[in-house]
Amino acid sequence: MKTIEELETTIDQLSIEGNAPIQYDDEALLSAFNEDNHHKSVGTTILSVLGGIMVSLFSLLFIAMTNIYDSSTALIVLGAILFAGTIYFSRKITSIFYDTISVCTLMISAILIIVGLSLIPRTENEINGVFLILSLISLIANKKYILSFISLIAFNASIILFIINNNWFDAYYFQVTAIALLLYYISYKEGTIITKSKELSLRYSPIHTGLMICLVVGLYFARLYTFDFNITFLHLIPNITFLILIFLQIPYLLAQFDIQEKKAKGWVYVITTIALLTMANYAPMTGSLFLLLISFRFNHKIGITLAIISFVFYTINYYYSISLTLFTKSMLMMLTGVVFIGIFLITNKKWSTHESK
Prior knowledge:
This protein is mostly helical. It has a domain at about 170-355. Helices cover about 80% and strands about 0% of the residues. The protein contains 16 helices and no strands. Helix 5 (about 95-120) packs parallel to helix 7 (about 145-165) and helix 10 (about 200-225) runs antiparallel to helix 14 (about 285-295). The protein is globular and about 75 Å long. About 30% of the residues are buried.
């Protein structure tokens, strides 16, 4: 929700659906909305992250000049102090300036601890495990918009590193399935989550955005191990999950485009089934389509943008990676285009008819 008018419209719609007016404090609602928008400013977030990276680089250069890198104990202790201080003050201070400082200190603390551990004989899994634990603690304990987003991305990155270091490539299918289910759940439970507590309401947006990015990244790695076409149960887990989640969005789309005739609904399900069967063995395509539909359902513009880019990329990658002749690939691309153009024309006609009414 970008404006207070959209928020009030949503409340009015809920009142109509519930057949009873919703009582709320106008001033408190406006105050909370403005504070939440402060945390959700994309420009502020980007500048804070970039500022934190630059300051972190200069700070690490300064630390290197003190020769503290010769002592693993000093690095780990200093990193732990910075990490604990960042988490503690994130729960006490609310300001844009501190957002930049918190990004800086969190990055420095993580780098110091990892470098300190690398000076001691430790395996990559042990170091990565420490990184995973730190990111999880930060994700749970902090109260900052930016730190929540960065912590979630770091947590997902550490899981990917575990998979790569141990050659557990089939684990990508479990990872993207878990992320998709979690994204689906929190999307549908948004109202419950943001009204449960002020802290959850402030952290919902960065976690939701972070999950969408984690899903796109997970789909990218999953795509690297899909084209052997030796379909196993593990391959089917994300594919079946995405197909189910996509079909769950169809009733909303039918209502959105005012498609009420049983025959038209039947054709929509038939065309959807045929289209999904062509990509049923390739999770990145179905996963991108799921992200597009769920983002459209809840009007998340970042998710829509990510989904469109990833869906186009994976569609091209899919058709040019399958073992078929160029002529067959061209025919498939043409038929797919015809199907999507037909869907567009039908939905556009229905939408125009609905608008004229």
